[in-house]
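User: I'm writing a tutorial on reading structure tokens. Could you give me a worked example: one chain, its sequence, then its tokens, then a sentence or two explaining what the tokens reveal?
Assistant: Sure. Here is the example chain.
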Amino acid sequence: MRIISEYSSVILIGVSAFSIILFIIVIILSVRLSKLNKKYNYFMGGKKERPIEDLLLDYIEKVMQVEKDNERIVEECNQIKRNLKSCIQKAGIVRYNAFGDMGGDLCYAIALLDDYDDGIVLNGIHSREGSYTYAKPIENGKSSYVLSAEEAQALQIAQLKNKGKRI
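And here are its predicted structure tokens:
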């Protein structure tokens, strides 16, 4: 029995030391858990702010709305590009002297065309008796009316504009 009582005091001291070490570890882990819990509550929104799940759901909704808006904007841009093809994009002008007895190039021929070479040729003729303006329609780069040399030249100048610069 003596052996047991000699060892029992050593065992008691060992178990006590082990218990103290475990108690210190429990305190350290409790402090760390408390800090982690505070960070978690802060991250999740806690009592003051909205929870992160709500924030994430709101951001996902906003991203989806931005994607829808972006698709709409892209479609509108494409529609604008299609509409621009029908707007005047090319112009050619030729100034000339229709009458040899008048000074200066007071007459003009202007061709105004869209991307499809549809448009109009305007011819302004200035004489001593008055000024006259004539208009001729252009479809696919051609007119159903006979064009004067100056009108044809203005049309050719306009058709050469923006070559290779299509929308």
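What the tokens reveal: The radius of gyration is 45 Å. Helices lie at 2-43, 52-84, 149-160.
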